[in-house]
Amino acid sequence: MKIIPGISSQVLATRIAAELGGEACLCEFKKFPDGELYTRVVDGIKDEEVIIVQSLMADTGLISLLQLIDAVEEAHKTSVVIPYLGYARQDKRFKPGEAISSRAIARGISFAGIVDKIYVVNVHNRAVLEYFDVEAKNLDAAPLIGDYIAKKGIVQPVIIGPDEGARELAKAVAAPHGYAYDVLEKKRISGDEVVIKPKELSVDGKNVVIVDDIISTGGTIAEVAAMIKAREANEIYVACIHGLFVQNAPLRIRNAGVEEIIATDTIESVFSTISVAKMIAEELKR
Ligand code: R5P
User: Fold this and answer.
1) What are the tens digits of pLDDT across the range 9-35?
2) How far does residue 183's CA lie from ligand 1's centre (Å)?
3) CA 133 to ligand 1 centroid distance, Å
4) Rounded to two decimals, what is the model's pTM?
């Protein structure tokens, strides 16, 4: 098995290769003066099994992935690990004439029949996996967040998801350790008054970990953290699978009274304190 590290997942690919007892292949990436990308797998690939690891958080990542798939066309078997599958939030047509972006991306990746299997980590909506022409499997990194919280020794944390869509994630983080979990609900008190609060649990005096699949601008999490703080929570932590952290997201979140921002390395940043490498390597061994 040869691991091909994509331009956006160099550290994670190297970790996966180490977990599998090997090394990641050397690749060259550069930009031409007009902005076009150049991609080369320096060790030529012929009749081998290859695994490309590449997150799609910016358009450059997608172009580079398409180039890598083309570069390994002579491989015997090609799997693609997309730790963060970008564009998955545009999973349907919300307005007439819109592109179903996740479908366009999936079609592009499945082009020319080179790819045999896809792996993604906590895709925003599992339904988009149906857009790939080949088998696409979702891996769940939520239990790794639960393990991190336990290892950190946060006392009796309450796991809170920002909305109903985050219930499954909150449960997957909390359940293996027996932590309490809940999601927020918006309650209209009067014509112009809306209260956002946990559906069932009180956070008063509790340590709270707010979890979400993606943190992008940090707007959602910062609002939730400020609300939880106002409800007299003790320590507040924030954890996500995919930390995009665009614009001033870290600052907004910290300013809302958060002790620590925790993310995985599906997108590599200073907040990537949890690695999904072992989980992916174990799946690939299977
Ligand atoms: C939305 O459906 C996602 O689960 C996240 O809640 C959202 O992407 C977070 O975005 P932001 O950090 O910009 O509020």
Assistant:
1) 999 999 999 999 988 999 999 999 999
2) 14
3) 28
4) 0.94
- State the span(s) of the chain assigned CATH 3.40.50.2020: 2-140+275-285, 142-265
Q: Is 59 helix (H, G, I), strand (E, B) or coil?
A: helix
Q: Does residue 213's CB lie within 6 angstroms of at least one atom of ligand 1?
A: yes
Q: Is the CB of 122 under 6 A from ligand 1?
A: no
Residues known to be catalytic = 186
Residue 212 CA to ligand 1 center (angstroms) comes to 7
Cα 246 from chain centroid (whole Å): 14
The pLDDT tens digits for 175-199 are 999 999 999 987 777 777 767 778 7
CATH code of the domain made up of 2-140+275-285: 3.40.50.2020
Report the interhelical angle of 142-152 vs 167-174 (nearest 10°).
50
| The two structure tokens encoding residue 246 | 């665009």
Reading the block at residue 207, the tokens are 């340590």
Which 8-state DSSP code applies to residue 257? T
* Residue 224 CB–ligand 1 contact under 6 Å: no
CATH for 142-265?
A: 3.40.50.2020
| 61-100 pLDDT tens trace | 999 999 999 999 999 999 999 999 999 999 999 999 999 9
Task: Using DSSP bridges, classify how beta strands 208-215 and 193-198 pair: parallel, antiparallel or unpaired.
Answer: unpaired
Query: What integer pLDDT is reported at residue 168 of this predicted model?
Result: 96
Give percent of the chain with pLDDT exceeding 70: 99
